[in-house]
Amino acid sequence: MKIAMLARNADLYSHKRLKEAAEERGLQLDIINTLRCYMNIAARRPEIYYNGEKLTGYDAVIPRIGASITFYGLAILRQFEMMGVYPLNESVAIGRSRDKLRSLQLLARDGIGLPVTTFAHDPKMTEEVLKVAGGAPVVIKLLEGTQGIGVVLADTERSAKSVIEAFRGANVNILVQEFIKEAGGTDIRALVVGGKVVAAMKRSGPEGEFRSNLHRGGTAARVRISPEERSIAVRAAKAMGLNVCGVDMLRSNHGPVVMEVNSSPGLEGVENATGIDVAGKIIEFLIKNAKAGKTKTKGKG
Q1: Is 80 marked as binding a ligand?
Q2: pLDDT digits over 182-195, tens only?
Q3: Are 8 and 33 in contact (CB under 8 A)?
Q4: Which of 84, 158, 225, 237 gets the highest tally of CB atoms within 10 A of its CB?
């Protein structure tokens, strides 16, 4: 079995682990720099070239596409799909998860618990938006932010209005969400592979920090999640159409609520915290499921 992994940095822990896991099982995994690929978009004969050579013979593709290159990365992934190569996560599903507003709408449609979330275009609607979100404190998020970047906690109505008006004045799209104070700066990340939660960790932010992202100095520990949290994580992955993802949840007074579904979750934190071979489980999923032309969307959408 021959696997292509779309990734810009071959030295990242997650990418090295996936390559190790594949090679331990006798598979070939090539790490391909997404931005060095180019396409021949020809009728009935889609092709991808990399460093001047045509890419052929791949059975599966693992997209590890950074948020900053989502548009080009998904274009390359769609080309693989049109060539009949099985994707770990499909292009349409990744596109859904990268659009924070669309992903929350899809989760809400499926009855999955969310923090109260508001979205408006006109900065003159600031007071109404804050009222719907339950008033300060609120969390204000850029639609395009990742790893906790572009996320602001506004403690007072005044500061919330200032931040919202500043973002909207710069023509930046934002979401305003209720602040789940009882979570205490911690969240749960559940790793879903093939419709099952294979590992879970509790992430805690540093002192005085409400964001628990490991990239922002947070710490992680193994956690036992409830049957309800396990069910919500699986349902969230299904709502996005993702085979592999990290589902971030907060424990609120009214039950678990989903903050985000990450289509390219990092493996270092969860493997170190839990001791579980998540990379191996991802490769095993591909071995079991990768079949030529099995992509549901065939590059459409």
Answers
A1: no
A2: 788 789 999 999 99
A3: yes
A4: 237
